[in-house]
Amino acid sequence: STLPESLADLVIPKAYINGQWHRGTHTFAVTNPANGEALAQVPDMGAEEAREAIAAADQAFPAWRKKTAKERSSLLRRWFDAIMAHQEELAQLMTLEQGKPLAESRGEVAYGASFVEYYAEEAKRVAGETLPGHGVDKRILVFREPIGVVTAITPWNFPLAMITRKCAPALAVGCSVVIKPAEATPLTALALAKLAEDAGLPAGVLNVITASQGADVGKVLSTDPRVRKISFTGSTAVGKKLLSQCADTVKKASMELGGNAPFIVFDDADLDAAVEGALVSKYRNSGQTCVCTNRFLVQDGVYDAFLDKLAARVKALKVGNGLEDGVVQGPLINQAAVEKVQTHINDALDKGGRLVCGGKPHALGGTFFEPTVIADVDESMQVAHDETFGPLAPVFRFTTDEEAVASANATESGLAAYFYARDYRRIWHVSESLEYGMVSVNEGLLSTELAPFGGVKESGLGREGSRYGLEEYTELKYVCIGGL
Ligand code: ADP
Questions:
Q1: Which residue positions are annotated as catalytic (predicted)?
Q2: Which of the following is catalytic: 256, 370, 464, 472?
Q3: Which of 9, 18, 60, 269 has the fewest C-beta atoms lying within 10 Å of its C-beta?
Q4: Looking at this predicted complex, what is its ipTM?
């Protein structure tokens, strides 16, 4: 194992069930995508352990929900403090197992922790209401209650933030949780559990099980009758499967699935600002986020100028091990990711796309890939319809606003959309016309704990962050008081 000594206290490479650390009978290796070296072995658990974790969460739920909101709030606040006190170690760990540059990892710790802080505060503001009754002797009470045991299945691209974004609101309202982190990045999840334990979270309230294959555990987490809600972030294909598995027991589900984000540059845009936004939204985490731009749509009049400015900046992006100074592009998560990017590039070039820069695996080898820009892209190409999830910027050309909006909306996805413009009428009209859960105007980075994150169409169900993210974990109970 090559995990640095400095991280030994933070990472217990065991599953966390009912406040106990379990070794399991089988293990699998967690590797560093920058060099392929094994970092640690973690338990490879299955259906049986998943049921054990659900049983623990089920047992812990009644006492947890009965605590005062202030008590839950204090515990969450202590968890937040513990995470921020270990920001540097957590960032190192994340770069080691996920590959993102250290500066991005530090940012993710702060971003991920912000959900814990926010929901620690909101815990005290979860309230029902009294409505006018339907007779002089009747009153209508509306209680807001925790939904019950929650399961969370999370992806590898944000090993920390996707966990806190689900767990913090669930815990705040009084739910207990079982987490199944992605097989590529379980160490950050286990470090979070360790910090929650240190913060004093009661046994069984938060459980983490690790598994090399998502399917068996996922089946239990989405079908066990003791579970009332599942929250998933990941691919659209797996999300659909989980949703159908939820049907038998009518579980509530939040789904944060794939995107196909357009980034529209209108001819009145501030081009320098648009290029800044483009770099952040396209190349963050080497293009491996669900809100990363998948397609640039640029208006005729500024097409060449935008392309030149973008290409100049992309050529200067430093690729390398995320722990090295100045690196802004880490490795891709695995070989399959490299192959997908290459397939999209080859397809675009075969169909008449023009290579502006990059285009192939990086000379560093492994899963490093050259940041790529392709011009003259059109709707016949795979990149128009399929999420690349890598460092490829395909640039389409358009003439009218209507054409840009129609093209942006011509997808089953509807997560994030970006556009740059100055005219205020255009800003209003385009914002209203885009069929997306999130629209970012003159800004390349829109994620924050203060806003409702989520998609429409096949990009998902439900919202995370803000007070809307809290409602996902509560049920309303109507109590009729009669005979008054
Ligand atoms: P990605 O392509 O980003 O890896 P996935 O949807 O495959 O997205 O993975 C997201 C999460 O879903 C991971 O934790 C993974 O282990 C889990 N997962 C994968 N397949 C299944 C499945 N059949 N049932 C439940 N969870 C799954």
A1: 256
A2: 256
A3: 9
A4: 0.98
